Description:
Layout: H1 8-24, H2 27-37, H3 60-79
Amino acid sequence: HPDKCLDDKAKIHFAEVSEAYSVLGRSESRQEYDLNRKVNAFGISADAFQMHYPHPPPDLDKVGFEAYGDEMRRLVLFAI
């Protein structure tokens, strides 16, 4: 607390902590803070870049054999 520690750094740190508490301590301002953290400087939500895959993920071996058939079988045989 700045009353106990007269150092300027302590005063600055106490002001930062007080400001953070004033924002995060109220549910309305906390929701706004959380929302703003999800939006970058260009106004694009970080969620926009997340890829959403079907669950469960596809069996890539099966997909590969279905798409490339004989070529995949040759690769598997030569890999052994």
